[in-house]
## 1
Amino acid sequence: MTSIFKRKHLFYYLAIIPSLVIIGLFISPLILTFYYAFTDIRGNITLGTLNSVIADPVFSASYMRVIIYFILNILIKFLLATGAALCLRHPFKGRRILSALNFAPYAFPMIPLYFDWFLMYHPSWGVIPYMIRSLGLTPPNFLTDPNLAMYFVCIAHAWAATPLWTMIMTCGITSVPEEAYESAKIDGATPTRMFFKITIPYIKKYLLMNALLSCIWVTGEVTSVWLMTRGGPGTSSHILASYAYLQLYTGYYNKAAAMLTLGIPLVVFLMFLLSRVLAMED
Amino acid sequence: MLEVKDVSKVVDNKAILKGINMKVYEDAITVILGPTGSGKTTLLRIIAGVEEPTSGRIFLDGKDITDLAPKDRNVAIVFQEYCLYPHLTAYENIASPLRAAKIGEKEIDERVKRVAATLGITDILGKLPRETSGGQRQRIAIARALVKDAKVCMLDEPLTNLDYKIRETMREEIREIFKRTKGKIIIYSTPDPLDALLLADYTCVMRNGVIEQMGKNKEVYNKPKNLFVAKYYSYPPMNVIIGQIEKLNGKAMLKTPWFKMSIEGWSGPLNKDVAVGFRCEQLEIVPAGSKVDMKLPSDKLKVATVHRIGTEHLIQLWTADKNILYALTPGDVRLEVNETVDVLFHIDKLWLFDKETEEFLGRIYEGSAIHD
Amino acid sequence: MVEQPRGIRNLFKVENIAKALKALYLIFYTTFMLFPIIWMVSGAFKTDAEIFSKTPTIIPVRPTLSNFLPPKMPTAMWRWLTNSLIVSVSSASICSLIGLFGGYAFSRARIKKFKVFLNLLMIAYIFPPAFLIVGFTRLVNFFGLLDNLVGVILVYVCLQGPYNIYLIYSYMAAIPRELDDAAEIDGWSKTHVLFRLILPLSLPVIVTAFMWTFMMTWNELIYALVLLNSPSNLTMNVGLSSLQAGDISPYGVMFAGATVYASIPVVLFMFLQKYYILGLTRGGVRTA
């Protein structure tokens, strides 16, 4: 290779060093996590940590729950967002303002909003139970009922991400070319049929891709649970990562590492599904 | 003089350039003519120094510049896509090479304004590229190349991205601008044979990464080395019919479906299938009603298409064996598609090529073989 | 047959029913989206008595600014706000810088090996950050950077860096490499090409990448929570959650702090928009 091109390549290699460092620094915690999963508090290599975690009923319950959580999460976002996208599709007076306003939940910082939801859910002074009571009904014990807590946490979480999904659905819906609808209209199709037979197949790949990405990210969800219920009442609203986080928070980092290690196959599985979706033809 | 020695470029096991050897002289416009994919742009980029040859060297005035950075090579290039800096004004675009060389502000201003005047773009110096038209952008690109006053100035398909209406005028302007420069080596690459015909002092015909022929313009035109050069470097395209050379009574005879002629002094091979080439001016369409000169070979052929070129019409005609022949008619002659017309073959000048190898066999002028 | 007046006929037309349904849904949707926000902002102006009253109202009956002022607002809150600002701005800046260099190298170099790293970047972006928390906390501990904003910044850079690089890379890939060649032939050095050609043309994506990293770190909790300890070192999120005291947390104060906290990114974005638009109007990469 002649010298000028060697120098060019050198420049590129130099420019890429920070990126390589970052990638390396991303991988090393992963390796560390595996290390801690296979050792115990004193540093001896053992399967004991993993075993105790697997045997822990709270852990298996949390593992199950995170799957329910991300499915519910996606459903809520998808349903709400599709409705919004369909309604906001055609221009009307004030549409811009409405769209902008509706973006607020995503733009606002989440942490104080979780406290806000906690307050709104509160049986004594929460506004939601208050409104339900004023209708003459008995409000459920939102965050204090072990069977219900996780679902309401999930609702608050999904609420925050809905505006993003409205944008995703709007992009998807508007990407379908008009001609597809026109020929269907001539054939006399109703809007509902058009939606299911035309829109959905067109954006199937796009939708699945975004849905899977969302699921992958939600498997690592901690904040919503941590702030609203700390996993409670008891341990009934812990999801995979929040339970692991509890271990870390209380100093049991081996256990935390073990839990996360056991959770990685789930992530890998979802990533595998994602790769299959990406390989789908358009 | 710029010398390219044995330059090859292989990318992903595909040979883009194979053993290119050429000498380019100063005070002349050298046109590299070739279809898309023949490697013209790659060759120019290698000479400029932004692409690396897999093997081979480049010499400028005897000095090996292969290992030098582009800025040390004394070359300038106008890219096919102009490649103007979108965020800088035309003035800044043109001044760019001078600024890089850390030339003083006053001199930069002088030189930029001078070059801008030559190209007639003084009034748009303050504009951004996106605020100008295609033709103006090209002038800015040319100005940027000229302001460097480099020894080698290369233009990569300068007319390809222009509206066809502007192409004619731009070609003329380019000729004017560069004919006025002194001591420069000018290389112009194009897929359009007309550019070479009208601009070139030297023509280099390339195909598939190889130089098919290179030489003085007229030479390449009149003495094409093979059928490809003959057909490609011709505007409109050359007519080619198939014939045979046989030996008859000790003399060489050329036989074609339309005529037989004996060739005096033929030293080439006998008993061969040949491709016979003649220019489209040599195919005359006889106006309806006129008398056909019986001395010339003739035929009735059907019109395939009619194209207007400038003030004339280019007619494509079907032969019996579904071959296409080209003829020119004056603009006032109106012909219809599928009309059958009388044509005369003016076979005073013929080029003969081996039908198999497509190599040049010889030229025939009025029945005699010409030896060069 | 009596002709029904136009109005009633229209009422039952399918299009109008659809329009009505759409309007209904939008009312429901907008209410659902905005209500919690309005609740929070109004809560910032409520006294504790009102917040904990059995009959809450949207508009405070007796609005007050006491939540914004000492003694109710802890002085530490301003400290937390500053810390968050330091962390987010630093992380975003470092990430953008790394992205600038990395994006440039990835988009320009025709080196085959780089493709592998590009894929790794994508995977790093998708991978949920929570799974690395054990590894990172131990690493930070090892380097003695616990309870230190620098530790947090470094971790955030590792977490957000890959996305920055990828984002900036995809944008730069659309800037034709021939522009680089033209600059090289003009005689400019590679560094100059990066900072005076590619950077100005990439302003929109760099601003986007900066804002993205800023927002991600602005909203981040779990890492900051385990990496920071002393009250004066906390970021706003951690600080707010430290105020949490079971059922009876000082919501008014938290919401007041949150309102201030939420407005800072807005101000930042309005400031950066100038550069974003500047880059867009200049760029139009397809003009050369």
## 2
Amino acid sequence: MAQKMTMALFSGSVDKLTAAGVILSGAAADDMDVDIYVLLMGARAFKKENIGEQGSMAELPHLKDEFFASLERLKVNTWVQFFKEAKEMTNVKIHICGLAGKIWGGEKLEDFNELADDICGIGEYITSAQEADVHLFI
Amino acid sequence: MEANELKAVTVDKTVDARGTACPGPLLAAKKEIANISSGQVMEVLSADEGTKRDIPKWAQKKGHDYMGVIEEDGYFRIYLKKG
């Protein structure tokens, strides 16, 4: 039986989303089942209209240009590419917190990009975290 | 295996991941090993220092045989036998 990783993705900042994407890639290479619960600030990044947005950085925001230049030079995927690739490689489900969605004007699944699988409540996240082999909060 | 032994190994598949940083080489290895048969040998070319430790650990977990690494000028050749 595959090991399971549960990730609470609270942040919607591009630096933390990129970190989440790198970790998700490692889990995909390891054939782990992954449940990602997109909470509060994270949900905005998954809104359909925001998918191409470069977004803000939570850490060292004044070095954003340097960060993006380095990612490009090193041919690092965007966070969306990391997430898409991981979904193709292993069982990754992305759940949007119902409250978080509403905060950013997303009531239904179709308000979010194609990465999102469903809209859920917080109880499901707690259960998933209790069952996980690896549990992360980003 | 030592470098001189690895150089004599017949490689069934080469994955050139020198253009990518971590986790690119690991993901490339994961994808491409699906395209060879058990017992066949794959070499992964990577210029990423971390990959030289990452791929052996991944291979061990996945049941593949890590055969060794050759350090070339600016990159590594990492050899795996599919389990």
